[in-house]
Amino acid sequence: MSNELKRTAAEIEDLIRKIARIMNKRLRDSLKESAITPPQFFALVNIYREEGITIGELCDQMFLACSTVSGLIDRLEKVELVERYRDEEDRRVVRLKLTKKGRICTETILEKRREKFEKDLEMIEMERQHELIDNLNLLLQIMTDAESEKIND
């Protein structure tokens, strides 16, 4: 690997880490009003995007132990944001869905995050925004393909 490629990789990784840190701070700030923790929010978002997800699937997506996620869901259920229900085809399977309150809460937080990010993007001309999207998609695809190859090896 050339020195230039090493420097580029390090710089891109550092930039992504810094952006993620800012986005995580913004998330924590927006969650203060709702008394939801970041892991609880990520669970809500996963259920929002894939209603009917099982706890096992949620564990895989969140990279957390099932006991941890189960406790998270218990707390979200107590505050009436999530509910468990039995699968119609296989009664042994427990699925998750947001309550009306959970859906409103999740959508409100997502919208606030989106609005802040839109203000950031207003500083970049549209053509460069599209280039950024294309480049991020390319990087994501390359990394996803590399992960798939690891699993298949």
TrEMBL record:
GO terms for molecular function: DNA binding; DNA-binding transcription factor activity. InterPro entries: HTH_MarR-typ, Tscrpt_reg_MarR-type_CS, WH-like_DNA-bd_sf, WH_DNA-bd_sf. The keyword Manganese does not apply. SUPFAM superfamilies: Winged helix' DNA-binding domain. SMART domains: HTH_MARR. Residues 9-144 form the HTH marR-type domain. Keywords: DNA-binding, Transcription, Transcription regulation. The keyword Repeat does not apply. This is HTH marR-type domain-containing protein. It comes from Anoxybacter fermentans. The lineage of its organism: Bacteria, Bacillati, Bacillota, Clostridia, Halanaerobiales.
